[in-house]
Every structure is written in structure tokens, then in C-alpha cells.
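TASK: fixed-backbone design
INPUT:
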């Protein structure tokens, strides 16, 4: 049986990617000592080591890795051992060119960077299996190995492949899905533009086409590639489970990453881990927070590890701003507050050679232990040692936002009434309000059990697969409040329209029908009137006919003036609210504020602006995080009559707490 994460790591994990093969051996002992001093307890090793482990086909050199693992273990540092499959060696594609992924234009990718493999190549899968088997057998009993880090950021650079072998695999996948070619024709709607197929081998990729592709085909290609990459992951996982059944496995996810359906992937992982690189220029901390909340939600609230972040700055943006003093620490605490049981970095030592040599790291080029970067690392690493009690603590949210990868794929396919709609932006728009009000939010998929929530928001849920509306109906019927925004309930899983009047599957629940869509030009706006108050809307207007719902805001201008823009409908013991336009921030704030008040959902504390408040609970102990993102200090009033313990200073706190700028208080009670 696989061990629980808290069993193998009873501490907040702290460390990063460690690439010792890029350094002379003389650095290794010094690295281990510095890690120890900085409180590092976990490092990921061998992520990009394939070419130095398997020097030629079947010839393995583990001497260096043996040494590294021994050094780390003797310094009390655990290892998330990578399977080393992230970047295949040059000899592999020289011997077997079919392992290379192929671009749309038919040109194969080449060696010299990374991730150039085709997920569908059987020869590649075979090579992966050989390597992982060797790794697992070699290190199955090594005491340093705490978990397996499978591959790295699957799909990051390459999530499509147009090789002949991929085409064969696509056809096989379609056959399994549709059984008969007639069924495929029906499900793809191929009578449109004479696209009917007689045989499976007539089917091609949705690529290199003179004009619009078939959306059902494109959607299936996305599903196919997601599953192909997932199969590759599972090839590794199965080998590891077989040889090391007790050691937990994971791969590291990315943020805002569309090609992989992470809700599905997470089911096959023992730990969700992900890599976060918010741009300091952006100044939108709610986005970073949302990624954390989404990752925590992928395995039903089980804590995640932040596997990679940077101490200072990346090197892959046009201009790479550096985090200001204290920001790295503060943002790391936001990670922990939102369900992170691991705070890790790319990478331990700043590289000397290669494409990432200007990417920040825990130990900078100067190698100076007095450097700001290393000092901040050392401070944080040693502070985190005091938070063992937090490991596996949970978040209790009463609000959920529906997030659905397939919907993301479908709603952003071309040929829509408005082709600049961003699913993520619609989700951010609603998430932001909860973030700013310090209301905990989980993410759910449309089939999740919603019974724990009082409020569910489903932004732009364009795709509703068969029966999914029942889950939403049941939630509202039993007393829940549902908010749905425009362009929802339009298409089924094939991206065919749900007939019966938009949004057909949600019509009964929302008590309305949308007779027409009226998208707005880039510079166009309208105004809505709600209780006599005006606010600006843009992007989209639904022409709504009420069927039991009540209008709570109407459009003021244009040919559809006075028609409903926002509605509410009582359904069973609950109510559903529909937003048939893209409202201003101020309107969304007000609307959600009213709903939260009515439902009696409030923040743990009331605090000044830009102060983030989050709670996690463990064994009857609550940990209250108060993070001051302001450039000035704040004083925050606490609940009267409660005696808190400041987890970092161990002092008792009552009534109020003073927090310096860019600083945090973690209070347990
Ligand atoms: C990703 C990769 C790392 C490294 C970092 C740089 O997260 O997983 O190997 O390239 O980006 O930011
Ligand atoms: C052209 C084509 C039609 C149709 C329309 C859509 O006119 O001839 O088949 O695609 O565009 O506007």
C-alpha cells in the first residue's frame, strides 16, 4: 500500500530541483551543508539526467547518483527522485527517429532543447519503461527516496504531435470511442461541408486545413492528446507501483495550463504538485491565489506541494522582474495558507551553463551565503520547521467555483459569436471577489458532490455533458445558491448545440430562455440598471425571455433596452442567478456581496485592503494566516476572548496583532 504523504514527509517540505550532474563533484558536499543550514528537507534529483544515466542504450551509470543520494541522506535531506524521463538523450532519436514529435508541417522536432518526444511513440514508451525499471530497482530501498517525481511538466512545450504514429493512434482512439464509422459521422456532424467518412483511415488530424476545422474533431484531438500524455504518465506509474508499491508518486503540474485535464490526472497521483511563476509586473495576487485553490481542489482538499517557484526572477519573459525583499517569503506563506504542504524552488544552485543560467535559484552565482536570496531562503526554511502541526491541515470552504477543462477547450474553439472570450478571465472575474473578501473557495467539476457548499458559481459553463445539469438542479433544489454567467449550457460533449432554446439543459433551473446573443464590439459598452443604480457592461448581452425568473437588472441602451440582464429564480429550496452579460467589477462585487450576506458567509476577520486572511484546520487546531501585502504595516483586530499563539514567535496574542509590511502572522487557536 502506498504511504500517505504525511507519513513520508511529516514536515512542510522545503527545497527544490537539484541538478548535481551539472556541477563538479567538489560542489556536492558544500551543497548538502548549505541545504542543511537553510532547512532544506527535500530535493528533486535527476529530472533531466537521462543522458548521463543511460549513456547508451542499456548502459547505465548510477555511480554519481548513488553518491549524491548517500550524501543527501547523510545530511538528513530527503529526495523526490525523478524518473529522469523528461528529456530523452540524443542517441535515442538517432537510433529510433520515430520517438521524435512532429510539427503540423510534418517537420520533426530535434535534440538540443528538451521534451522533443512524441507521447504516442511506442518506442519512446518502451525506452521510458526500461529506464524507469532500472531506476526503481536501483533505488527502491534507498532510505533517502521519499517519493517519485515522474517526468516533468508534461506537455509544457509540446502537447500536440502530428507524426504518422500519432495519426494511427488517433484513429485507434476514435474507434474505441465511437465503435462504428457511422457513429463517428453522427457525433462529428460530418454531413456538414461534406466531411463524411467511409473508413477510419480516411480520418486526418484537424490541422493544415484551408478554413475552419470541425469542432467535434478538434475537441476529440485535444482529448486524445491529453489521454496519450496521461497514458505515458501511467506507463511510468505502473512500473513504479509494481517495484515500489509504498512510495508515493506525482508529476508536477503547471498553472493556467489548458492541454491537460488535471482533475482527471489528479485521480492517478498520490500528491498534487505544481509550478508557479507569477509575474511580479502583473500585480494581481488573486490569480496566484486562485491557482493554489484550484490545485488544492484537484484531490478534494488534500494539500499540494508547490514543486517549483523562483526565489528572485525567471529568465523566460521578455523582461524578468525580480521579487522585492520579503515577497518571496510572503508569497510562500500564501502557498502554505491555501493548502501547500511543500514550498520548493527551481532550482537549488543557479546554473553556470545552458539556457537557464540567468534564472534565479536558492544559491545565486555569487555563491555568497550572505546574499539576500540565500538569507531569505534560510530564514523561511528555518521558520517552516515550526509548522509541522500544519501538515495535512484542511480548508473549509462554503463557496465553490465550477472549473472544467473540457469546457475550457470547447468554449475557446473558433467560430463562436464572440471569439475573444477567455474562460480563465471569466473565472478570475468571480474568484477575485472572494479573494478580496477573504472568503475561502474550492473548485469543483460539474459532477462533484456539491452538498457541502452554500454557494456555487459556474462562470461561462458552455459545455454541459449529458446529465450534468441534474447535479446543479439537485444542489439548488436542496437549498443551494447557484450563479451562472452568460454563454452557459449551450453545447454537449460533442460541441453540438443543446436544442430546445438556449440554455436548454439549464432553462428549467434558471427559469428563462436566451432568445439571441448580442456580442459587443471591442469599444462598445452598455449600461445595466439594478435598483436604480447604473453600471457599465461590455462584451456580451443575452436577449433573455423570463420563464419564472425575476429580473434584477435590465439593459438601459440599444435595441434590447429594458430587457433583463441579470435574473434570479427560486428553484426548490434554493435559487439560481443568471448573469447575461459581462458586468463591471463593481457590479460583481455588489452582487456577490449581497449573496454572501444573505447566506451568512463571512471572512474569518475583517481587515484593511490587501491583507489576505486564510484558515487551515487540523486536529481541532485552527491556523489563521494574516498576510500583509501592503507597503505599510497594519494592525488587525482579532476575535475578543480568544488567546492565539503566534506560531513563528511562540508568543501568546490577544485582541490585536501588528504586522509589518510584506510580513505575515500565523496564529493558531
Ligand atoms: C519549469 C521547469 C523547470 C524550469 C523552470 C524555469 O517550471 O519545470 O525545469 O525550466 O520552468 O522557470
Ligand atoms: C460563404 C460560404 C458559405 C458559408 C458562409 C458563411 O458565403 O459560401 O458556405 O460558409 O460563407 O458566412
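OUTPUT:
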Amino acid at each position: 500500500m502506498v504511504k500517505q504523504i504525511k507519513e513520508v514527509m511529516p514536515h512542510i517540505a522545503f527545497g527544490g530541483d537539484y541538478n548535481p550532474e551539472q556541477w563538479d563533484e567538489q560542489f556536492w558536499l558544500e551543497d548538502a551543508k548549505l541545504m542543511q543550514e537553510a532547512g532544506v528537507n527535500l530535493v528533486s534529483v535527476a529530472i533531466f539526467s537521462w543522458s548521463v544515466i543511460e549513456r547508451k542504450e542499456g548502459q547505465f551509470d548510477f555511480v554519481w547518483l548513488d553518491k549524491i543520494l548517500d550524501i543527501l541522506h547523510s545530511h538528513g535531506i530527503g529526495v523526490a527522485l525523478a524518473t529522469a524521463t523528461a528529456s530523452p538523450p540524443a542517441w535515442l532519436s538517432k537510433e529510433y527517429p520515430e520517438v521524435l514529435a512532429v510539427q503540423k508541417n510534418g517537420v520533426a522536432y530535434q535534440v538540443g532543447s528538451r521534451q522533443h518526444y512524441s507521447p504516442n511513440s511506442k518506442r519512446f514508451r518502451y525506452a521510458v519503461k526500461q529506464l524507469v525499471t532500472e531506476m526503481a530497482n536501483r533505488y527502491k530501498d534507498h532510505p533517502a527516496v521519499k517519493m517519485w517525481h515522474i517526468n516533468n511538466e508534461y506537455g509544457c512545450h509540446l502537447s500536440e504531435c502530428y507524426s504518422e504514429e500519432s495519426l494511427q493512434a488517433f484513429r485507434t482512439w476514435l474507434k474505441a470511442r465511437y465503435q462504428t464509422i457511422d457513429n463517428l459521422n453522427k457525433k462529428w456532424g460530418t454531413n456538414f461541408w461534406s466531411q463524411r467518412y467511409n473508413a477510419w483511415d480516411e480520418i486526418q488530424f484537424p490541422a493544415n486545413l484551408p478554413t475552419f476545422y470541425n469542432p467535434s474533431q478538434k475537441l476529440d484531438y485535444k482529448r486524445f492528446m491529453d489521454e496519450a500524455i496521461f497514458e505515458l504518465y501511467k506507463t511510468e506509474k505502473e512500473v513504479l507501483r509494481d517495484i515500489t508499491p509504498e512510495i508515493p508518486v506525482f508529476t508536477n503540474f503547471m498553472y493556467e495550463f489548458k492541454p491537460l485535464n488535471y482533475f482527471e490526472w489528479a485521480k492517478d497521483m498520490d500528491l498534487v504538485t505544481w509550478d508557479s511563476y507569477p509575474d511580479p509586473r502583473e500585480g494581481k495576487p488573486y490569480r496566484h491565489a486562485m491557482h493554489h485553490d484550484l490545485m488544492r481542489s484537484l484531490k478534494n482538499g488534500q494539500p499540494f506541494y508547490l514543486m517549483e517557484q523562483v526565489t528572485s526572477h525567471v529568465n523566460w519573459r521578455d523582461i524578468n522582474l525580480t521579487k522585492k525583499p520579503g515577497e518571496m517569503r510572503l508569497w510562500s506563506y500564501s502557498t502554505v495558507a491555501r493548502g501547500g504542504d511543500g514550498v520548493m524552488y527551481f532550482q537549488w544552485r543557479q546554473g553556470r551553463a545552458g539556457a537557464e543560467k540567468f534564472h534565479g535559484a536558492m544559491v545565486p552565482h555569487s555563491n555568497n551565503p550572505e546574499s539576500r536570496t540565500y538569507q531569505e531562503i534560510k530564514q523561511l526554511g528555518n521558520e517552516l520547521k515550526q509548522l509541522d502541526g500544519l501538515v495535512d491541515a484542511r480548508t473549509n470552504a462554503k463557496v465553490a467555483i465550477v472549473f472544467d477543462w473540457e469546457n475550457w477547450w470547447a468554449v475557446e474553439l473558433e467560430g463562436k459569436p464572440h471569439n475573444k472570450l477567455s474562460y480563465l478571465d471569466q473565472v478570475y472575474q468571480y474568484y477575485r471577489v472572494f479573494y478580496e473578501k477573504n472568503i475561502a473557495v474550492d473548485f469543483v467539476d460539474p459532477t462533484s458532490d456539491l452538498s457541502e457548499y452554500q454557494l456555487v458559481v459556474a462562470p461561462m459553463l458552455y459545455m454541459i455533458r449529458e446529465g450534468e445539469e441534474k447535479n446543479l438542479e439537485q444542489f439548488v433544489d436542496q437549498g443551494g445558491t447557484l450563479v451562472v454567467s452568460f454563454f452557459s449550457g449551450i453545447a454537449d460533449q460533442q460541441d453540438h448545440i443543446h436544442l430546445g432554446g438556449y440554455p436548454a439543459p439549464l432553462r428549467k433551473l434558471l427559469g428563462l430562455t436566451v432568445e439571441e446573443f448580442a456580442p459587443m464590439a471591442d469599444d462598445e459598452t452598455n449600461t445595466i440598471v439594478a435598483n436604480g443604480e447604473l453600471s457599465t457592461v461590455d462584451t456580451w448581452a443575452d436577449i433573455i425571455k423570463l420563464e419564472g425568473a425575476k429580473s434584477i437588472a435590465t439593459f438601459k441602451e440599444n435595441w434590447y433596452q429594458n430587457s433583463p440582464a441579470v435574473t434570479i429564480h427560486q428553484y426548490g429550496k434554493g435559487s439560481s442567478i443568471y448573469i447575461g452579460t459581462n458586468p463591471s467589477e463593481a457590479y460583481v462585487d455588489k452582487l456577490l456581496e449581497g449573496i454572501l450576506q444573505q447566506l451568512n458567509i463571512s471572512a474569518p476577520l475583517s481587515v484593511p485592503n490587501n491583507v489576505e486572511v486564510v484558515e487551515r484546520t487540523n486536529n481541532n487546531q485552527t491556523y489563521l494566516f494574516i498576510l500583509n501585502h501592503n507597503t505599510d504595516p497594519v494592525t488587525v483586530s482579532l476575535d475578543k476572548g480568544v488567546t492565539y499563539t503566534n506560531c513563528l514567535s511562540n508568543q501568546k496574542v490577544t485582541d490585536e496583532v501588528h504586522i509589518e509590511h510584506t510580513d505575515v502572522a500565523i496564529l493558531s487557536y
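COMMENT: The longest strand covers residues 533-546.
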